[in-house]
Amino acid sequence: MSPQKENEDFYSLFLQEKPRKILVYLKKENKQLYIAMISKNVNATYAHTFNVLKRLEKLNLVSFKESGRIKLVKLTELGEEVAKVILNLMDLLKLGKMENELTKVYESEIKGKLREQMDKEQIAKQINRLKTEIIELSKDNQLNVVVTAKKLLKRMDDILAEVFGFPPG
Hints:
Layout lengths: L2 H11 L3 H13 L3 E2 H7 L4 H13 L3 E6 L2 E6 L1 H34 L9 H19 L4 H22 L5
Antiparallel strand pairs: 1-3, 2-3
Helix pairs in contact: 2-5, 3-4, 5-6, 5-7, 6-7
């Protein structure tokens, strides 16, 4: 296999759903698991899961331990780090989705309207739901997620101040 093809193969692996799910599942379970258990959890066939795990093993992200006829799988130290980065990316993408929801609320419920025309209670309810999700997401998370979450929370506070006529904070 050419080096270029090998790199394309390596990068495309993490853009696929099943390898991502396998790494995240192994990270969350934090123990050795049977391949059948993994395949059931990620909704894949045993054969497909086994093939993905063999590719992950070649990248030193998982290791196998044979116990009789049964193979147990666990993340390597590098696999732990890669899974952590994937989880971090997923959390950042969730924040992006929440920011998009906030923008939609602002555009449809606030922008260009007088305060008297706004359903303040409904707006506050929508924004506070998003705030709760963001606060929960930022607990015990990577710094880049926490910083992004704080910026989004600040924007929410500014929007609520605009809705209720408070001076911007």
